[in-house]
Amino acid sequence: ETTGTGPYVIGALNGDVDNHHELIARHQLHIAEPITTDAKVIPTLVSRQMRDGLPLAEAFRRTVAAFEGSVAIGAATTRDPHHLALALRGSGQALYVGLTEDTFVVASEPYGVIEECERYLRMDGETPGNPQNPAASRGQVVMLARSSAGELTGITRIAYDGTALPLADKNLARAAVTTRDIDRGEFRHFLLKEIGEAPVSLQKTLRGRLVRHHGKLRVALPPASLPQAAVEALQQGRTKRILVIGQGTAAVAGQAIAGALNDALVRTSLSITALPATELSGFSMRDDMRDTLIIAVSQSGTTTDTNRTVDLVRQRGATVLAIVNRRGSDLTDKADGVLYTSDGRDVEMSVASTKAFYAQCAAGQLLALALARAANVADDQKEHELLQALLDLPTAMRAVLQQDDAIAEIARRLAPQRRYWALVGNGKNRTAAAEIRIKLSELCYKSIACDATEDKKHIDLSAEPMILVCAAGLTGSTADDVAKEVAIYKAHKACPIVIATAGEARFSSAAATIHVPAVHPALAYILSTMAGHLFGYRTALAIDQLALPLRRMRGAIEEVVAEGAAGKDVLGELRPHLQQPWLEFRKDLLLGRYDGTLEARTAARLVSLCNYALGFVPLDVFAIEFGEPGAPGVVVDRLTEELTHGIDQLTRPVDAIKHQAKTVTVGISRNDEAVLTVPLVKALLEAGAHRDHIGYRDLRALAGLDPAVVSVLGSTRYRIDGNLEAGNARIHVIDQRGIATTLRSRTSGNPVLRGTKHLVAMERQCIVAKGRSDDRTVLLVPEVEQNKTIGITLLHVKFHEHMDAGSLRSVLGGYRNRYAALSDAVTETEPAFDEGLLAAMPVVDLLCEPINALADRWRNGSLHRG
Questions:
Q1: Which residues pair with 784 in a beta bridge?
Q2: Which residues pair with 468 in a beta bridge?
Q3: What is the pLDDT of residue 546?
Q4: Residue 824, SS3?
Q5: Taking the CB of residue 20, how many other CB atoms lie within 10 A of it?
Q6: Rounded distance, CA 243 to CA 259, Å?
Q7: What is the helix (H) or strand (E) element at residue 788, kind and residue range?
Q8: How far is Cα 214 from Cα 208, in angstroms, rounded to an integer?
Q9: Of 399, 389, 342, 403, which is closest to residue 181 (Cα–Cα)?
Q10: Bridge partners of 498?
Q11: What is the dihedral of CA 240, 241, 242, 247, to 10 degrees?
Q12: Among 20, 127, 170, 264, which is least packed by CB within 10 angstroms?
């Protein structure tokens, strides 16, 4: 059973080994994932280079270094049968190498290694292995040697550019979970186990985060979850908007969190929005996002789309808070603050995530209340009431679990025969509907609509669908209106099933009602979601149960014809075994229980083939219907094939779904790598500036300045220590290159950070400057980590003397918006701004002189250097 991670490629490089399991055994390896072998380009490219004399490690490194995007790859070759090569690059993917006696265990999650290994190496696909070559050295290649299996000496690690990355014991981690954490126990599926664990998971999310103040409950988050810098940004009004991002279930939890934030921060002017991470990175990015607080939600902390978006917003100066379950995951390394759900180690083995959703909503509610207090808009009484309701919520969740049998009966009776399904809800119940839709789709293989309750009658009510109505916590006129909508659904031959608060009698027209306990209205949607998760689980089992007669028939065929045991009258021997399951199938087929699941073609062929197999129709008619002789063996073969098709259409494995996102995509790239190829940007990185420490706005500014640059003559890198705001920051030279090696830095005698460098550090924005005494032009670029300037890279730059007006408009527009500023300054007194006069102005002056001074020269006609 898969945990929903991947993808992975194992290639037998020369095609000499067809049995990959034999290959794995030969390497003393255990692969804890499904293996795919369709990426034949990898074996071809590696083999070609090995024929030229390169060893496996180097041939593999050169091959994978040429790929774009995020990858996790494994390769083996008969040319070097005693080694296995692994490669990891990018965010979202993961590879773990477990070490135990005489064995390496390779998996995409720690869960895959802990049964055999206590220690493991977590490969790093993002951190540059060579600071002097950051772009090319991202990603790692690891070689595992059979001769030292299970030992650290059997692992060789290099960066993507070939830089050696030596290993020591300190590089190995110890599993934070045990086999007990991933044991299914007495439960039939991990999904049901995890729904059952949800109350405890939510309790752990609250633990240690609530205090009593003057008798009232209050949220108390540590600086590790809510950094002081984020609090101050709210208090000082520097934070203007909050964006909650995630993908899939985490994105839906983000909707709930955004709702809680809007409730808690209603008295502020903050703009609060929830959106998928990919929507933010694709369409809502700004060059400067220092006014933005990002709340990134992820269960595993390894979601590629979310992590890549976090990378991009951090480059633009946004503050990032993460709500995540996995300690030590990629997202926790990227965030400024982390609020763990449960205890940060809550394992979810089912692909369909459930308990994480409830914990994420609870954590988001805590964060919303904490941010309201940070913004000085907290309501003590409302906060107390909401927190008390959160503390009481696990008891209500356990009451929902006790409704499982009743929910199972409703699911079995009403769901399978309906071909079309829909989810509806109002307010926060709309979030519940969106989340239940995901689980129903994943578990039951349905494409399902999700709408506001009142919209359903305007859209596709004519489909006569089964409609699950999320209505827990509704009161007053809103509940009355939803009851009217339910009656409309029923009148139009739909099948409405309502999730409502216990004791609510307004939904009598529903086909069935699922009752949940009464809780605080702001939290009732969580109980709607939990009931919906149980409904989805029981519906999947009800559909899967429909395959039982077909499985029995196929099993009978396999038993009778196994190893040629059947005699000449194979159909005669089969008939007693087929008759009972055939009658069960035919009965349910006539009752319409297969209408929503089994394809019409499959049902028709099964009926026809069973009629032949059971002797209801003579075999001499078979050729007319199926186009081949009606021999008993042919009938058995065709019936077996059709039974397999029917079983496939009805099987619902629950924990491991048919198609899961991580097996078919590695996520967005949105890497903006094109800007890194600009010569001026390349010169900055070659000078030693760390790619992750350069803001995207500065990268864009450098790309815009590049056409004005003749050459980069040298560079100086500075480290900044101390506190800028307190005025005790110091600056020190750490590297000099080119012309800078012949120059003495003023900071060597006086390390106090002052002047232009102080301005750059404070503004965190690049500046072009001209020396007062030596007339040299330099470009100063700040290096920023977690919104703190930690260094400056200075480039000695030679600019063109003059450029055409069109090119200068572009250069000035991209650098501190000087074109617009100059135009505005001139037109304060002049009727128009004559752009053509830019060509007469020295480029350095346009970049360095104060705007008002340039405007005076413009008005006075002193365009050339005086």
A1: 789
A2: 423, 497
A3: 97
A4: helix
A5: 15
A6: 12
A7: strand 788-799
A8: 18
A9: 342
A10: 469, 513
A11: -150
A12: 170
> According to the model, what pLDDT value does residue 451 have?
95
Closest of 819, 824, 826 to residue 805, by C-alpha = 819
Rounded to whole angstroms, the maximal C-alpha distance in the chain is 110
Q: Are 218 and 387 contacting, i.e. CB atoms less than 8 angstroms apart?
A: yes
The answer to whether the CB of 636 falls within 8 A of the CB of 561 is: yes
Cα distance between residue 518 and residue 500, in whole Å: 9
User: For the chain, which residues score pLDDT lower than 70?
Assistant: 1-45, 91-92, 177-181, 563-567, 659-674, 773, 861-866
DSSP-assigned letter for residue 621: G
Pick from 91, 101, 642, 143: which is nearest to 330 by CA? 91
Give the integer Cα–Cα distance in Å for 187 and 403: 17
Contact call for residues 372 and 216 (beta carbons, < 8 A): no
Mark out the alpha helices in 818-866 (DSSP H runs).
818-826, 843-848, 851-860
Question: Rounded to an integer, what distance in angstroms lies between the CA atom of residue 793 and that of residue 780?
Answer: 6
pTM for the model: 0.79
- Least Cα distance to 669 among 296, 309, 244 occurs for 309
Residue type (1 letter), 840: A
Q: What is the pLDDT of residues 505-564, one digit of tens each?
A: 999 999 999 999 999 999 999 999 999 999 999 999 999 999 999 999 999 999 888 756
Concatenate the DSSP letters of all residues of 73-115 into one string. Answer: EEEE-TTSTTEEEEEEESSS---EEEEETTEEEEESSGGGTTT
Helix (H, G, I), strand (E, B), or coil: what is residue 427?
A: coil
pLDDT of residue 656: 82
Q: Quick one: pLDDT at residue 323?
A: 97
Q: Which helix (H) or strand (E) holds 294?
A: strand 292-298
The predicted structure's pLDDT at residue 347? 81
Give the other-Cβ count within 10 Å of 772's Cβ.
Answer: 6
pLDDT score recorded for residue 41: 56
* CB neighbour list of residue 521: distance below 8 Å, 6 or more residues apart: 473, 475
Q: Which two tokens stand for residue 318?
A: 């946004």
Residue range 257-293, pLDDT digits in tens: 999 999 999 999 999 999 999 999 999 998 889 999 9
Whether residue 358 contacts residue 195, with contact meaning beta carbons closer than 8 Å, is answered with no
Among candidate residues 750, 845, 746, 748, the one with its CA nearest the CA of residue 802: 845
Residue 43: the pLDDT is 65
Residue 607, H or E segment: helix 600-613
Q: Shortest CA distance to 266 belongs to which of 369, 389, 386, 339?
A: 369
* C-alpha closest to that of 307 among 671, 788, 707: 671
Q: How far lies 202's CA from each of 194, 341, 356, 750, in Å?
A: 12, 8, 9, 55
Q: Residues near 549 by Cβ (< 8 Å), separated by ≥ 6?
A: 581, 582, 584, 585, 588
Q: What is the pLDDT of residue 624?
A: 93
Which stretches within 676-739 are classed as H helix? Answer: 679-686, 696-705
C-alpha R_g of the chain: 33
CA distances from residue 281 to 307, 329, 408, 713, 814 in whole angstroms, order as listed: 11, 21, 41, 36, 21
